[in-house]
Amino acid sequence: MILVSAEPFAEAMVSTGRAIGLNEFLLIQWLAPLASEAPAIAVAVLFVRANRAGDGLIALISDKINQWTLLVGMLPLALSVGAGALSTLPLDARQGEEFFLTAAQSLLGIALLLRLRLGLWSALALVGLFAVQVGLALYYRNDEARTIATLTWLAWVYLGLAGLLFLINGRRLFALLRSALTGNTSGLEPPRTRDEPETQRSGRETGSVTG
To answer: pTM, whole model, 2 decimals?
Structure first.
């Protein structure tokens, strides 16, 4: 089904963008990922509605891991199969900066999850930065050089925030690395919030650690 529908879907998006005068790159960049991410988002929302927010977050993280391993790794492989020879993935300046920006976003996401919980302010920060990114992309959609410079600037902002969070949560980072090497998760309980009941904390820790 994917093989049959992928190419017509992509060609239809490009044709629609040309017909309505919308930048083709932006259309493919934002609309196509939204369609492909819809199932994972729907699953996460269902988990949250079932009072299983931890499982919803795990579903989104798993989807992100798949993107940065299987999906990215398949791109040069698919290109090589199509070309009939081993080929590298050609990227222009803008595409290279998009990769850089996405990697920086992922690193910030990891930094925000060092405490094994995602608070409201962390979520709002991610949404706010993403809104700035989309707004700047639309504003400079007809200026390629300015768009590339904006992507670079935003990527360094993400990296700077991630580095700051790694410094603040250095002990948690060390504990996570030690756990990954030893397989011992006994010291990875999420920090207790103020005035949180002990029973609620126990349930949250179980969901955070085992999930």
So the answer is: 0.72
